[in-house]
Each structure stands twice: as structure tokens, then as C-alpha cells.
Sugar-binding lipoprotein (Streptomyces xiamenensis), 392 residues
Amino acid sequence: MWVYQDGSTVIQEEFVEKFNETSDIKLDLVQIPGDNYTDRMRTAMGSPNAPDIFFNWGGGSISDFVAEDMLIDLTPILDEDPEFKDAFIPSILDSGSVDGRYYGIPMRGVQPVILFYNKTAFAEAGVEPPATWDDLLHVIDVFIDRDTVPAVVAGADPWTELMWLEYLLDRRGGAEIFERIRNGDATGWEDPAVQWMAEAVKELVDAGTFGNNFRSVNYTADGASTFFAQGGGVMHLMGSWEYANQLSQQPEFAAEDLGFATFPTVPDGTGDPRAVVGNPTNYWSVSSSVEGERLDAALEFLRMSASDEYAQALIDNGDIPTTSGAESLLDSHANPEFARFQYDMVAEAPSFTLSWDQALPAGDAPALHDNIEKLFGGQISPDAFVAAMRNL
């Protein structure tokens, strides 16, 4: 079993251990560093070294494997076990599907992208979390005047920069623009909102929003999170897993200073301000090479993700479960205010756009990341970025 290594793997470790206490077939959990997880997974699949069970993002991240018949179709298994299927929020379970068939079982919490901020730093500066674009520009100016980086971004890992693009486009033009792109309509990249998004990124970079050294900051080695927790920057646009990471690595900061807000509105924006972007959750998928007793054991383990015990473990780790009965457990969260904020954020969202690099075909991700890195680094203009995306 392969899993992406981060602050949430403690849960997978715990439940693999529980499983192995009673199962004749043992699971070997292999933690793969995040900075090369996707590459290693894609290299391994279809080889003799492929994992039996592996962590993924659903959708485009596994569509190639489905096309090559490398995964177990879990649809009949779920249909024959309604209790198992109904244990998950339907929209979350559906997000792991490919062409209407289920190939993944939710195994982590919901993961909307949230604007985290340092409550103490904001209070000392006399500012509030930005609700509008003008508010954001004001906050940026205030903290630049205080010789503080306004917003942390891990430029060494361009998928973290992608989150800014996703929200800027969603707020400006609505979720339907990327929906067109995801469905194969490349003319979506020609929408005026895409041009505005790219120009807005240039404005933010030129204003010093991310500091001068953001391209050397990483996320997968906890660089950006540590920089944020130590006061090097005061805002961090990141998936909700950032809370669990801070709770694990910098618990005092998580308890006392970590604030959270929705992304601000933008001028002339037609997108719904309640819309969210991010990853509905992560999934376990099973290799089609697994059969017989080994497949029975794999499915037995996957069913653990539907249990109240697993949901409680996620909550104890700072996550919000994807199981349908999770709302009743939220008061036991280490930070019930954050738990309810995140739950309501997802429950009330009119759309939940999957991260672009997971929604698009896997082969497009390297070029997407490359173009984003060049845009943030000033190596290409907004016009050149839009042209490059049209030709993705």
C-alpha cells in the first residue's frame, strides 16, 4: 500500500496496524515523499512493482489507469453493499469516479482551499482578513510596510501557486469556465476572465505579495508551513490539510494564532463567492492485479474508511471526514470552530472545483505546472501564459 507522506499519514499507520492484528494477509504501508509521489506512482503502475492499494486524487489522476484496465472497478462492490456506499457523502464519492464508475474509496478528509492567516499578526497590524480585492491589496501594503511577507507561497512546488489561479478565475468568471476546459473545450482558456486572472497574478507578484525568495520555498518538506508558523508570512492560501499539518508540526501556532477565511471577491466578478476549489478528498484505489483472498483483504481494509472509528481518527487529527454522519462528531474536533467553518464551507458551496492538475488528464500536469511557475516567476507575460494554456 502506497500513501502520500504528510502529517495525515499517522491515521493510515494506525489503521494498517489495527488491520494487521487480525488479518492473515498483512498490509505493508509505504510512505512516499510528496515531492515525487505522482511520478513514482505513474512509473510503478503497470510494472511488477505496482502497489496493490494506492493513494490518489480521483478523476484525471487515475483516468489513464482506468483506460488501461489497471484498476478494480468498485461499482458492483458498492452496489452490492449499500451500507458501505451510503456511508460516504455522495458528491465526495462521485468525485472519485471515472466515466460514472467508482474506482476510489474516500480515505481522508474534505480538502477545500482556505485562506489561512496569522490572527496575532493581523491584530497587531490593525487589519481584518480581506473580504474584497481592495481589502487584499490594502493588507498587502500594510504588511510590506511592516517588512513582513504578506502571503506565503511555496514557489518550488508550483501546484501551491495554482490555488491562487483557481480562486481568481472562479471569483472572476465562475466555475463554468474551468468546467468547459475540463470537458475538452480549449476555447475556455480564451475567456476574458482567464486573461484577468493572469494579469492579477502579475500584479500580486510585482507588489511583493509573496516576497522576493518564494521560488526557493517548498511545501512538501514543510518549508512554507514552517515559514508561516514562525511569522515569516502572514497569509497562506492552502488546502484544509494545512491545519492538520500545523497541528502536527507547530501545535502552539495552530492553537493560538491560526485563523481562517474564505477567498475574497474580485472586481466585476460574476463567480459565486461561496464557491470553493481544492480536492474533495483523497482516495484508495486497488490494482486490477489483486485478486482472490488478497482482493478480499484489500476490500476489508477499504471498508475501515467508512467506520465511525476512522471518522473520529480524522477529526482527532484536525480533518473533516467525508462520511455522511460526520456532522455529529464535529464538536469533538480540536478546533470545533474550524471544523464547522470547513463543513459549512463545503456544504453551502454551489460548486467545488477539483484542482486543475488533478481534473485535467495527467499528461497535461507538467506543462500546466511549468506555465504557472513561469508566470509567477516573471519568465512569461500574462498574454504568453494564456497563449501557452490554449495550446496545452
